[in-house]
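Readers of this paper often ask what the protein records in our data store actually look like. Nothing more is needed to write down the fold, since each code stands for a local backbone conformation. Below, we set out a record of this kind in full and without editing:
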Amino acid sequence: DLRKQARQLENELDLKLVSFSKLCTSYSNSRDGRRDRYSSDTTPLLNGSSQDRMFETMAVEIEQLLGKLTGINDKMAEYTNSAGVPSLNAALMHTLQRHRDILQDYTHEFHKTKANFLAVRERENLLGSVRKDIESYKSGSGVNNRRTELFLKEHEHLRNSDRLIEETISIAMATKENMTSQRGMLKSIQSKMNTLANRFPAVNSLIQRINLRKRRDSLILGGVIGICTILLLLYAFH
């Protein structure tokens, strides 16, 4: 008698879980289709309150059936543990374990389907709230938002220009410092050269004489080359 009741409850649970899974699937598909159909974000995503009520009703019914089936399994366990049925104890234990496995599978499937449904509904509620806020923001202050964006862009341009000017000034200051240091180095070299020239006037005069002699030798050599060239030309034309 307990096995008959367990089988009847299992059949009812199987039908209920199939309908419950179809309800959750149709709920998700309807929300996806509505999102694709109303891309302007002006229609709320969750106006299927009838589906929500049906979900709650079916969830309560399935939980009640699971509770009844759990009670039947407990009664069968008490019967197998009672005295007077030692010869049938192994077979009864096998039957009881099979019904427990079926109950566990149904419970797992129910909780999984319920969690998926709740996740989809929570996501749609969140998306609907965000879309509603975005739509109200767009429709309520479009012109002001446009002006604000322009002001922000202009402010960003000014900040970039200010930053570039500061970088240019810093580069100019660094260049000025380098030129100042180079000028100081050149002045020090010039002063050292003057000091050397003042210390060794004989060397300076010797260098000047060498330069004068070099110029004189260049003039003499140039004159000789010129005279030879003229003589060669006269001989050739003669």
